[in-house]
Amino acid sequence: MPHTVNSSLLKKILVLGASLFAFGFGVTGCNKTASQSPRVVRHHPAKPLYKNGEPLSPNAALSTANGHNNGSAKVNTGDVQNQQAATGGAVTTSGNADNAAIAKLQSASGKDGPIKTIGLTGIGINDAVGVALARHPDIGRANAVVAQGKAQIAIEKSAWYPTLQYSVNPGYNRYYSSSNNKNDPGNVRGTVGASQLIYDFGRTSSRIGAAQATNEKQVHQLAGTMEDVAQNMANTFIELSAAQDLISAAERETGLLRDTHDKISQRVKAGLSDASDLNQAEVAMERAKSDLLQATTRFDVAAGKFAQISGFRPTKVATLAETTRFMDSLSKGKDDIDKTPAVLAAEAEVRASQQRVRLAKADRFPSVSLGVSQSGATGQRNATNDSTFVGLQLSGQFSTGKREKYQIEAAEAELRAARQARDNEQLVSRTTKGSAETEERGASARMDNAKQLMNLSLSSRDLYWQQYTLNKRPLTDVINAERDTFSAESDQITAISDRLYAKVKAYYAVGQLVTRLRERS
């Protein structure tokens, strides 16, 4: 008899479980099949390559969002020295209606592109920025945050699907037992059930909307992070290129002063110049060597920073003239302040705050669900232990301390703060763009002035040397003219680099730096 009763209970639980599964499948089947979710770009950090125990330059996996390429860059030092292979590509994407905005921001097209070889010697600013984007860990962190936000959307949407509950509780049964002995410890009570949310006054939809807006914000922050990395690397590259040109100028100054020293030495031996002139020339040479050491130190500092970002230390990069031609060839693009990553992220935060206000207001009302459950216990059937329930469920809570009121006030204050933050980002972008344009105009004017000054100094130097040989001018004037030539060239290099800084800053202010560099790549 106990075996028959236990079998009967097991059959009832199995039949009920099958019916609940069919119920859940039917509810789920009523929904339209969603298309594949939009892609979430992921960054794979690079790892060093090793061959014969010697460390090679790191691999770099390039993952970008907002329409940028997704690929990988590999740096090797093997049979072909100073060569870097970078594999570029793009990842195809698809999206659904609920996340159209996110899909638009993350969209990219095309398959893996051709392999691109980058020469480490004379590397350009666009390749340097590409390597930085491929390696920087902050981009990987931002990609992980985007993936987390995408998962949060799915979590919030799951509230609209049926929830299954089950429990099996062994213990005493004081109502009956198979052996007609009270408090038989062998009894088992089981329950299976399901519930389907019907209406909650906008609570779930607000949570979904807030999660979607937050994910949009994270995508824009990813684009902003890429802009930050690109600007940092571009500025480092410009500093490195300027130091390289300054070294060349200092070497020219040292060489010219050495020639002057040799000429004066010959004149002293011939009795045409005084020995004090030779000492004066040696002092000028030492000063030129100091300028060279200072320029070399500046290059080493910039190269060290470059190596920290890119993973390799270049011995030579593109000159300022080459970098200027490249930057001048970039398309101007759109200068819409309202479309920068920072402003778009602030706009998304405003939408998320609006949804949180709706959520706070919806928390004042209950939620309505449809529930079904079946309970059973071992032994003979008893109304207390074996029961079936199908009906509506109403749940909610109300705080006597006016918690709901204060939650609404807090959410509304958060919304006001988000709107102020959006306006502040617009102001910052507009101010940055205006200052960059002013700095570029000023640097261009300084470039022209330095060029004229350098030409005049060169003419004066040649004239002063001729007059010195005729004993019509002291050697000090010749050395000062040489010094003025180097100073004018240094000023011109500084003005060129400042103009490039300003151009990078202008593209960064409108969130177009990565886009413009990518077009040229």
TrEMBL record:
InterPro entries found in the cross-reference section: OMP_efflux, TolC-like
Composition bias type Polar residues, residue spans: 60-76, 426-435
Start and end residues of each stretch annotated as Disordered: 47-76, 421-446
Cellular component, GO, one term: efflux pump complex
GO MF, one annotated term: porin activity
UniProt keyword Ribosomal protein present: no
Subcellular location: Cell outer membrane
Predominant localisation class: membrane
Superkingdom of source: Bacteria
Protein keywords: Cell outer membrane, Membrane, Transmembrane, Transmembrane beta strand, Transport
Family in the record: Belongs to the outer membrane factor (OMF) (TC 1.B.17) family.
Protein name: Outer membrane protein, adhesin transport system
Organism annotation: Bartonella apis
